[in-house]
């Protein structure tokens, strides 16, 4: 096999040298992957990067534990490398390092290897349905690629021991933020639907857990992607749970479950799953021992998936990861501002601080009021298009955004909004908690002055560059309205530009996403 256009450095896997080498390389769609475990397969290596985009070429240098991989665009490669600045990817519990190659294109001379590589990659390129798509490793090998999304369907076979919402949460939350779980029986089989905040989380959970058993050879998990885009949960009880809306009742006329949230530092009375970034970018599973639960009698030794000490009793809610700071990457540095991120992420929680990175203005940190709001914002905004770029939102390794000293260069890139009057969720019982909806091209407008006309409102939004497709007032006094714009991205731009806009007569426009269409 003859290979052109690359020259690998020596096998120096020290992380400090890796960071130094990476800083010398200009962005390129060719990536250099180091310290690959010798027993890792081609499919597993490629599975690390396909959540960020399509792979067009691949070459493995097995004797050096390295590989070269070419993405379909430089933008996808940049997003991946930026992500790896914060979360080191792991294969077989061993860290691997990804950096830009010094080459702009990967060319392999004609050979059977090249033909096999292109054949295996065609399945990914042909079936990847979009930015949210995360094809499984079997797709890399040329197999069938099912529907991809953030909702998993789980079938449990050999159900000889109890499997509850709490058990599923404890196991699956290792791979990302779990938003909702519903369990049920169909065709005499125990099944569950589980929704993650991010399709990438669902992909890595399926890759790692499909075919595994919770207790030895019992309670075997069979996992596939559901065709549902989201789960709708009206009640919190032992059969269904919405971890983003803890105040839901047990059922019709029943009071809510007592589901206390863990404080920021955690508490020994709750299971607090370890979370160190995107799944697949973390070490192998390990569960935090919990001493406050009662246990059923289970066989010993337990399988690798089993909770370390116990199966939680129904009604005991595992706490969500305590980090409230999000890393937002692949932003448009020419358009984004701290205020824009404050308004956008403020749709799903109270934003306390925003920091745009001085050296990498396409990355930013957003600190929410608490971990639940951070998960909510991440679940709704990750993968959305803003100012021409698909943004990525993940939990940051930082737990707080530090304010820079006065007079420091780039001081205007960090803003403190902890006392902002524009917070939507500060008041307990606020109606804002009942009006949290996914991003939509239809916006709900309120606090409109009585003198405003349809033409006035349409002109206001058109001046921001939006295309107004429909508009109607929804109250007789014309203080509330719905407006449909050309796309969700246009709705984002209009929201950032016009929320709290002064309409005169002591009226400041309030904007939120609508669950209705016109």
From TrEMBL:
Record domain RRM: where: 152-228, 324-398, 441-516
Keyword hit for rRNA-binding: no
Keywords noted in UniProt: Phosphoprotein, Repeat, RNA-binding
InterPro entries: HnRNP-L/PTB, Nucleotide-bd_a/b_plait_sf, PTBP1-like_RRM2, RBD_domain_sf, RRM_dom
Transmembrane domains' residue ranges: none
A Pfam family it matches: RRM_5
UniProt-listed GO biological process terms: mRNA processing
Cellular component GO terms held in the UniProt record: nucleus
Any GO molecular function: RNA binding
Protein name from the UniProt record: Polypyrimidine tract binding protein 3
Native source species: Amazona collaria (yellow-billed parrot)
């Amino acid at each position: 096999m003859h290979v052109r256009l690359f020259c690998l450095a020596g096998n120096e896997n020290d992380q400090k040298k890796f960071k130094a080498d990476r800083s010398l390389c200009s962005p390129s769609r060719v990536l250099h992957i180091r310290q690959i475990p010798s027993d890792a397969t081609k499919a597993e290596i490629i599975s690390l990067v396909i959540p960020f985009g399509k792979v067009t070429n691949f070459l493995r240098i097995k004797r050096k534990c390295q590989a070269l991989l070419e993405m379909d665009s430089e933008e996808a490669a940049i997003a991946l490398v930026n992500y790896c600045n914060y979360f080191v990817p792991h294969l077989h519990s061993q860290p691997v390092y990804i950096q830009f190659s010094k080459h702009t294109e990967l060319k392999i001379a004609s050979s059977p290897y090249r033909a096999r590589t292109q054949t295996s990659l065609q399945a990914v390129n042909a079936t990847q349905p979009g930015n949210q798509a995360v094809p499984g490793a079997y797709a890399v090998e040329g197999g069938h690629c099912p529907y991809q999304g953030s909702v998993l369907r789980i079938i449990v076979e050999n159900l000889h021991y109890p499997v509850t919402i709490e058990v599923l949460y404890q196991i699956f939350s290792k791979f990302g933020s779990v938003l909702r779980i519903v369990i049920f029986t169909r065709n005499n089989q125990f099944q569950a639907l589980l929704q993650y905040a991010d399709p990438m989380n669902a992909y890595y959970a399926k890759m790692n857990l499909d075919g595994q058993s919770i207790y030895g050879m019992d309670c075997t998990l069979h996992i596939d992607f559901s065709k549902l885009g989201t789960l709708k949960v009206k009640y919190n009880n032992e059969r269904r749970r919405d971890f983003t809306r803890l105040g839901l009742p047990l059922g019709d006329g029943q009071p809510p479950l007592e589901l206390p949230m863990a404080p920021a530092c955690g508490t020994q009375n709750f299971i607090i799953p370890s979370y160190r970034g995107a799944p697949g970018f973390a070490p192998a599973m390990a569960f935090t021992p919990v001493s406050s639960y009662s246990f059923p009698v289970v066989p010993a030794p337990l399988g690798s998936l089993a909770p370390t000490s116990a199966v939680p009793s129904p009604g005991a809610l595992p706490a969500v990861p305590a980090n409230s700071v999000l890393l937002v990457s692949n932003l448009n540095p020419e358009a984004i501002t701290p205020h824009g991120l404050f308004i956008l992420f403020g749709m799903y929680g109270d934003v306390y601080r925003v920091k745009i990175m001085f050296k990498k203005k396409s990355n930013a940190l957003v600190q929410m009021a608490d971990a639940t709001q951070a998960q909510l914002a991440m679940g709704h905004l990750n993968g959305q298009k803003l100012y021409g770029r698909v943004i990525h939102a993940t939990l940051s390794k930082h737990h707080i955004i530090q304010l820079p000293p006065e007079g420091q260069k780039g001081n205007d890139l960090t803003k403190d909004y902890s006392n902002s009057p524009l917070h939507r969720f500060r008041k307990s019982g606020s109606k804002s908690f009942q009006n949290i909806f996914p991003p939509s091209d239809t916006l709900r407008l309120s606090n409109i002055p009585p003198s405003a006309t349809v033409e006035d409102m349409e002109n206001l939004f058109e001046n921001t560059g939006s295309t107004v497709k429909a508009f109607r007032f929804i109250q007789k006094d014309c203080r509330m309205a719905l407006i449909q714009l050309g796309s969700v991205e246009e709705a984002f731009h209009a929201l950032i530009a016009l929320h709290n806009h002064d309409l005169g007569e002591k009226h400041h426009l309030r904007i939120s996403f609508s669950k209705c269409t016109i």
